[in-house]
């Protein structure tokens, strides 16, 4: 992934899964491979919206109780973590382009 631990949003994981699946079906058939997604988005990311207009100090409480609303799900990804693994059958003549 990168040089330090990061977060990968569920939309990015789903897009990678769809792209890899389409590539594998095109090159080795529907039943010629088995794909396993290793990382799953369990971590909930929250956002604490702040106002920056005039009179904003009377409308919100700042960082007191700043838990926020859920914004999305992410997977915690560390260095050298495996996101996906693909097994290919021996009968399929498959070469990476």
TrEMBL record:
<dbReference type="InterPro" id="IPR018255">
    <property type="entry name" value="Ribosomal_uL16_CS_euk_arc"/>
</dbReference>
<dbReference type="InterPro" id="IPR016180">
    <property type="entry name" value="Ribosomal_uL16_dom"/>
</dbReference>
<dbReference type="GO" id="GO:0003735">
    <property type="term" value="F:structural constituent of ribosome"/>
</dbReference>
<keyword id="KW-0689">Ribosomal protein</keyword>
<keyword id="KW-0687">Ribonucleoprotein</keyword>
<dbReference type="InterPro" id="IPR001197">
    <property type="entry name" value="Ribosomal_uL16_euk_arch"/>
</dbReference>
<dbReference type="GO" id="GO:1990904">
    <property type="term" value="C:ribonucleoprotein complex"/>
</dbReference>
<comment type="similarity">
    <text>Belongs to the universal ribosomal protein uL16 family.</text>
</comment>
<dbReference type="InterPro" id="IPR047873">
    <property type="entry name" value="Ribosomal_uL16"/>
</dbReference>
<dbReference type="GO" id="GO:0005840">
    <property type="term" value="C:ribosome"/>
</dbReference>
<dbReference type="InterPro" id="IPR036920">
    <property type="entry name" value="Ribosomal_uL16_sf"/>
</dbReference>
<protein>
    <submittedName>
        <fullName>Ribosomal protein L10e/L16 domain-containing protein</fullName>
    </submittedName>
</protein>
<dbReference type="GO" id="GO:0006412">
    <property type="term" value="P:translation"/>
</dbReference>
<dbReference type="Pfam" id="PF00252">
    <property type="entry name" value="Ribosomal_L16"/>
</dbReference>
């Amino acid at each position: 992934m990168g040089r330090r631990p990061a977060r990968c949003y569920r939309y990015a994981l789903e897009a990678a899964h769809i792209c890899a699946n389409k590539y594998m079906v095109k090159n080795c058939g529907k039943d010629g491979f088995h794909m396993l997604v290793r990382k799953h988005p369990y971590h909930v990311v929250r956002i604490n919206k702040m106002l920056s207009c005039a009179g904003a100090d009377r409308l919100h409480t700042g960082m007191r109780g700043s838990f926020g609303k859920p914004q999305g799900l992410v997977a915690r990804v560390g260095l050298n973590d495996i996101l996906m693994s693909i097994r290919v059958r021996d009968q399929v003549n498959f070469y990476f382009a």
